[in-house]
Write a structure and sequence with these properties.
Length: about 350
Amino acid sequence: MDINLDKIKDKAIESIDNASDLKALDDIRVSYFGKKGEITAIMQRFKELKDEERKELGKAINLVKSAIEDEIKLRQKKFTEKILGEKLKREAIDVTLPSKKVNIGHLHPCTIVYNDVRKIFEKMGYTVVTGPEIEYDLYNFEKLNIEKGHPARDEQDTFYINDKVLLRTQTSPVQARVMEKGKLPICIISAGRVFRSDSVDATHSPTFHQIEGLVVSDNISFADLKGTLTVFAKSFFGNDIKTRFRPHHFPFTEPSAEMDVSCFKCGGKGCRFCKNEGWIEILGCGMVNPKVYELCGLDKDKCQGFAFGIGIERLALLKYEIDDMRLLYENDMRFLNQFD
Ligand code: DAH
């Protein structure tokens, strides 16, 4: 048999080296070892050979066979690695990429303000108490020294349920409920919803929120009131602000005052925000009226204390510079999403 095995091997190895992909490699394999393959054909002719010749050619052909097979395997490995590498690259996860923001909802500006205020007073030792939104006239008015026919009742247009029951117009009835229990000292705040028969506009709503404060012991003075509320105002608006107390009138406190803070936008010089006043009113307060102690069953000669009432919406409008209260209630996500 006249066969040049070296030539076959070199040709095979050259075409293996030039193969462009796995499919081409397989075609090569078939062209040598397949049914009609070149090597297969040689082996089929073995029977024509003598024993001696067959042995020799068999050895040589096995060497060529494994050389070609090895070369095919090597190329196969390279192609598979390349394909795998590309696949890995395609599927790779970049762990350094910032994560997507999860939409988890957040607090309403009024809740944020309430939490801030509550924390300030809790740090000063105040306890939080609650009271009912549906209230007796007795607590909302009578025990707070606002008897029937009192002009203060007109100021707070009331939703009556019947002669005796109403939707509370203020959080002050909680004061009466706490004092009525007769346990001193008292140092509480109470927050919640209040109702007034007002029509909706930029500064009014039939329902809004207040925070009430009450401190009663035997020797609490107006200086304590001023000190406490100034600490509160500085903690809430910033240390630079100043406070001032203007005489006012509330039936349940005597003397009464409204507290202003110096405008935190212009520092008190006067600007659009503070309507050129330099000052912004933020709460009502005063020394508990001795008549209220009596009406709530406490000994007026043994009690001395102060009270205050803060509008939560008012603080939120000021803090976030919102000029229309209605925005707080409309639940427009574009508005609410700004308060994380
Ligand atoms: N209840 C008052 C209002 O709704 C606010 C207020 C003023 C509460 C003075 C107080 C206070 O406790 O001392 O207008």
